[in-house]
């Protein structure tokens, strides 16, 4: 990291505020980073973070941040034996048809008697959404959002009514939490409403002025969907929990929403778990697991959690460097979506090829860890 950028990071961690000068310095174009000048318009444009178990897609809208949450064990359905009792009786005939090169007949027999019961399986499920609503009608300028793959941190920066706002979001493996940091360069300028929601049956409660708890369960309606077998009745239970720590200002709870007002900086820690034990057992206690996960980062400052996260991630990411040749200064300062559009037109950009190689590694590290 360049000295000036390191100074910026230290300043942020110590004071929780950003100066206009540090923001004017802009992003580090030499980093492995995807960056854009507008928020994500759909899920495919959102930026991913993950620790191998707990993930999120960050959309980056100034007025209402949407962070879609994933927990790796949350699936539809419930334990079920897919064994087809007719398989053994028809297996010899299928083999004979194949050896006789009667492939169409063999396929018909397989479809009728050898596939699982039901034929289709279950589907991975989203846990839900965390939303941050920011009041204010002023024009947004100087907007950027980025995925810093050298640190596994997403950032959103923009200016509104003369105030510079910054968000940092990452998913920590050492502390098993998604961590959100809200900063500004003007004391008391942060105001936001924090909420949890899910497409599944759920309840959200504010257990104290600084914590939200969402508890729910997957429930099937018995209807088949594309490549997904219909299941009727209850499946896994889940819980997501977030803790807000505000520097200055006040935090209150109203109808399952945390209202943060006139603060200098905010740290939000998010944990989640399901009742999954193994493929035969979904009787676990997600609340107990959330208790354990929340304790892992309890008592740590944001700077400590962030430092642990980056050190853990870089131990894996920094194993590989890739340089495919010269990249122009103009290309480095072009948003990633525009570079990709130029590449499709035939413009040579070896840096973009290296960037997407590293993006693949980032996704592997963020989506899969031991255990």
Structure write-up:
- The protein has helices spanning 3-15, 20-25, 87-99, 103-113, 286-297, 302-317, 329-332, 336-344, 350-367, and strands spanning 33-36, 47-50, 54-58, 64-71, 128-133, 140-148, 153-160, 163-172, 177-184, 190-197, 201-208, 211-221, 232-247, 250-254, 257-263, 265-274.
- Strand 8 and strand 9 form a beta hairpin.
- It is α+β, with helices and mostly antiparallel strands and 371 residues long.
Mean pLDDT: 90
SS content category:
alpha+beta
* CATH fold name of the largest domain: Beta-galactosidase, Chain A, domain 5
Number of helices: 9
| Structural domain count | 2
Distance between the termini: 31 Å
Work out the helicity level: 25-40%
Rounded to an integer in angstroms, the radius of gyration calculated over CA atoms is 24 Å
* Biggest sheet: strand arrangement: 1-6-7-8-9-16-13-12-11
Largest sheet: 9 strands, antiparallel
Shape: globular
CATH architecture of the largest domain: Distorted Sandwich
Strand content: 25-35%
Q: What is the CATH superfamily label of the largest domain?
A: putative glycoside hydrolase family protein from bacillus halodurans
List the helices and strands and how they pair.
Blueprint: H1 3-15, H2 20-25, E1 33-36, E2 47-50, E3 54-58, E4 64-71, H3 87-99, H4 103-113, E5 128-133, E6 140-148, E7 153-160, E8 163-172, E9 177-184, E10 190-197, E11 201-208, E12 211-221, E13 232-247, E14 250-254, E15 257-263, E16 265-274, H5 286-297, H6 302-317, H7 329-332, H8 336-344, H9 350-367
Antiparallel strand pairs: 1-6, 2-3, 3-4, 4-5, 5-10, 6-7, 7-8, 8-9, 9-16, 10-15, 11-12, 12-13, 13-16, 14-15
Helix pairs in contact: 3-4
């Amino acid at each position: 990291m360049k000295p000036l950028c390191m100074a910026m990071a230290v300043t942020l961690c110590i004071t929780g505020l950003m100066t206009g000068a540090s923001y004017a310095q802009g992003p580090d174009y030499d980093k492995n980073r995807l960056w854009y000048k507008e928020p994500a318009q759909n899920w495919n444009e959102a930026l991913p973070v993950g620790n191998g178990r707990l993930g999120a897609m960050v959309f980056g809208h100034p007025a209402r941040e949407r962070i879609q949450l994933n927990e790796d064990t949350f699936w539809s359905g419930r334990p079920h034996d897919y064994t087809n009792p007719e398989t053994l009786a028809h297996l010899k005939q299928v083999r004979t048809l194949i050896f006789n090169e009667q492939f169409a007949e063999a396929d018909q027999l397989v479809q009728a008697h050898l596939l699982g019961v039901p034929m289709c399986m279950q589907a991975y499920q989203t846990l839900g959404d965390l939303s941050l609503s920011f009041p204010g009608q002023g024009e947004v300028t100087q907007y950027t959002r980025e995925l810093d793959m050298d640190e596994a941190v997403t950032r959103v920066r923009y200016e509104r009514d003369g105030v510079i706002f910054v968000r940092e979001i990452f998913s920590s493996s050492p502390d098993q939490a998604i961590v959100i940091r809200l900063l500004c360069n003007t004391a008391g300028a942060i105001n936001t409403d924090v909420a949890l929601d899910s497409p599944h049956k759920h309840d959200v409660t504010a257990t104290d002025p600084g914590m939200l708890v969402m508890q729910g369960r997957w429930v099937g309606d018995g209807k088949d969907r594309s490549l997904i077998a219909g299941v009727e009745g209850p499946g896994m239970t889940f819980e997501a929990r977030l803790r807000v720590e505000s520097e200055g200002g006040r935090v209150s709870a109203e109808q399952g929403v945390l209202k943060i007002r006139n603060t200098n900086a905010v740290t939000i820690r998010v944990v989640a778990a399901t009742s999954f034990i193994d493929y035969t057992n979904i009787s676990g206690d997600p609340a107990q697991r959330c208790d354990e996960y929340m304790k892992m980062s309890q008592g740590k400052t944001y700077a400590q959690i962030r430092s642990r996260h980056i050190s853990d991630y870089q131990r894996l990411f920094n194993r590989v460097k890739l340089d495919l040749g010269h990249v122009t200064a103009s290309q480095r300062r072009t948003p990633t979506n525009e570079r990709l559009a130029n590449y499709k037109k035939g413009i040579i950009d070896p840096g973009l090829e290296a960037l997407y190689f590293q993006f693949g590694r980032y996704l592997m590290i963020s989506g899969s860890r031991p255990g």
